[in-house]
Design brief:
Layout lengths: L21 E5 L10 H10 L4 E7 L5 H11 L2 E12 L2 E8 L6 H27 L6 H8 L7 H10 L6 H9 L12 E2 H10 L3 E4 L14 H9 L4 E5 L5 H14 L2 E4 L20 H17 L10
Parallel strand pairs: 1-2, 2-3, 3-5, 6-7, 7-8
Antiparallel strand pairs: 3-4, 4-6
Bound molecules: zinc ion (2 copies).
């Protein structure tokens, strides 16, 4: 890592992170966002964000480019991944911040998830053809851009491109969601194992949009979340567009009771998702400070380099 980067260690970045705007969950075109990591970082800077978390689905592909762009514009970058997991039989998204990318068990799981996604693609297209939609992999590739993880959002974009549906939401509602004719089950990591792998990689784990209405979250009740905390969970993403005011209040209270870090973020996907503008939800500086301290501690315990945040 370049010398220009400031290492934010256990001493804490609090003084340097005074009144700042922090968005810890965004996607580039390396997963299902529509902007390159460079464009995403530049836009974040232009729109007045001070700290940006890049958290593409199951891939660290965008990190290097984002680091370069962040150094150019002078934005703090928190490198992350949003990992597809299962817990109690239900899908859960885990935000993993600052893991060492060279840590074997994490890398192995991410590869398995990405492989599962690649084999899911042809199976999904075959099912769509069975219900009469003329779509093949070239239609998806045409709209997928530079992604390392061609998946359902790109199939949704292809369906829009082909005029089958009007937008991604309709594609999921009619064809690609769990009850749709194009739904194919795919591998996801065990959530508790993944939290341990992230900690082993010297990173920290935060559950993304735990109580989003579009997910079945019955496994993530207070007892479930307490159980995850015992294996190393550090925080909950409370402020997210998929949580209404009451859900946020309940989750915030739960996080406070358990002593978990509270984050807020946009889950920005560029033009790929409406109402998720950069900075529409933000994380309080003191919460980021706690998260970075836990990451530094986790890195020391794992005997890995103290995680660096690009400044
Ligand atoms: Zn998610
Ligand atoms: Zn996301």
């Amino acid at each position: 890592m370049a010398a220009a980067r400031t290492r934010l260690g256990p001493a804490g970045p609090a003084t340097r992170l005074g009144a700042v705007r922090i968005d810890l969950h965004t996607h580039s075109d390396r997963s299902d966002g529509t902007e390159s990591p460079t464009d995403l970082v530049r836009r974040a800077h232009a729109e007045g964000l001070d700290v940006l978390g890049l958290t593409d689905h199951d891939t660290m592909e965008g990190w290097d480019e984002a680091v370069t762009a962040a150094e150019e514009v002078g934005l703090s970058l928190v490198r992350g991944i949003e990992v597809s997991c299962t817990f109690g039989g239900y899908g859960v998204h885990l935000l993993a911040y600052l893991p060492d990318p060279g840590y074997g068990p994490l890398d192995h799981e991410l590869r398995r998830i990405l492989d599962g996604r690649s084999s899911r693609l042809p199976a999904t297209l075959a099912r769509l053809r069975e219900v009469g939609i003329g779509i093949d992999v070239e239609d998806v590739r045409r709209v997928a851009g530079a992604t390392a993880a061609m998946g359902r959002p790109h199939i949704a974009d292809a369906l829009v491109d082909l005029g089958v549906v009007v937008d991604r939401n309709q594609a999921f509602e009619r064809y690609l969601g769990p009850r749709g004719p194009g739904y194919v089950h795919r591998y996801a990591a065990d959530l508790e194992d993944m939290i341990e792998a992230v900690t082993g990689a010297g990173g920290v784990s935060v559950i993304a949009h735990p109580w989003a209405s579009r997910h079945d979250h019955r496994a993530l009740d207070a007892a479930g979340i307490a159980r995850l905390q015992r294996v190393g969970l550090a925080g909950l993403e409370v402020d997210h567009e998929d949580h209404d005011a009451r859900t946020r209040a309940e989750l915030r209270a739960l996080a406070r009771d358990l002593g978990l870090v509270v984050t807020g973020s946009s889950d920005h996907h560029g033009a790929g998702k409406v109402d998720h503008d950069l900075g529409c939800n933000t994380t309080a500086p003191e919460e980021l400070e706690r998260l970075l301290e836990l990451a530094a501690r986790s890195a020391v315990a794992a005997d890995r380099a103290v995680p660096a945040v690009v400044r």
